[in-house]
Design brief:
Oligomer: single chain
CATH architecture of the largest domain: Alpha Horseshoe
Number of domains: 3
Strand content: under 5%
Helix content: over 70%
């Protein structure tokens, strides 16, 4: 490793400038979504400078965008080998492991990213998602809750925790999380729909109708509005039938 660093240190300035030129050109192509063209240019940059960490990172992003997650993983691993404190590369490693269908392999990469940058909530959220994908629901819930406590305005933590709780049929707890979410983000329409669903599941049909109405008012154009209207009509019909029967 030291020998390789020395080689880079004493590499001629023209070669370094050439590698940088290739890398900049590849970056522009990648930003234009010309991923295949960018791959070829990044490889040219790496041929000139084997320690060009930014080119490895850009190359990994291209492979990821092209759906070649195995190659992306190998490329990001090379990037962190060169630069052990490369937060973004560890983060992308974790994402690519998830996309490759090996979420349990993503966990160590997100942990490493968090150790490098503990204040960035994105890696913490993805760590929770990885545990959830590995069917470690209690660990995922704990991570989402810690994230909510440490970053109370981070909406996605509430969303993932409430969704997991609903999947586990823990509707009362999910409803509480979604109510907290509305305090943070009052215009989050999905939270109103989630609360309505949870209230209906727990038998609180009157309040469920109120939250279905709030969702419809906020997002009448969404496809889910049809679902909300159907549920609202069904609940109203049941209430009307019950009131009629009570008068008989």
């Amino acid at each position: 490793m030291e020998e390789q660093q020395e080689k880079t240190k004493y590499m001629s300035k023209p070669k370094l400038r050439l590698a940088k030129s290739f890398s900049n050109k590849a970056d522009k192509l990648r930003e234009q979504s010309s991923y295949k063209d960018a791959v070829a240019i990044y490889l040219n940059a790496i041929l000139v400078d084997r320690k060009d960490v930014n080119s490895y990172y850009g190359l990994g992003l291209c492979y990821k965008s092209l759906g070649n997650y195995a190659k992306a993983i190998k490329t990001f691993e090379k990037a962190v080998e060169i630069k052990p404190d490369f937060y973004e590369a560890y983060y992308e490693l974790g994402i690519c492991h998830q996309l490759e269908g090996i979420p349990c392999g993503a966990i160590k990469n997100f942990v490493q990213a968090i150790q490098i940058n503990p204040d960035n909530p994105s890696a913490i959220l993805q760590l929770g998602i990885s545990h959830e994908l590995c069917e470690e629901d209690d660990m995922a819930l704990m991570i989402y809750q810690k994230l909510i406590e440490n970053s109370p305005n981070y909406v996605r933590a509430y969303e993932h925790k409430s969704t997991l709780l609903m999947k586990l049929k823990r509707y009362k707890e999910a409803c509480g999380v979604l109510i907290d979410l509305i305090k943070v983000a009052p215009t989050n329409a999905q939270a109103y729909l989630g609360i309505a669903t949870c209230l209906e599941k727990t038998g609180n049909k009157t309040d469920a109708q109120r939250y279905y109405r709030k969702f419809i008012q906020q997002k009448p154009q969404l496809n889910q509005a049809h679902f909300a209207k159907t549920r609202l009509q069904n609940l109203q019909q049941k209430t009307a039938n019950r009131n009629y029967l009570s008068l008989v």
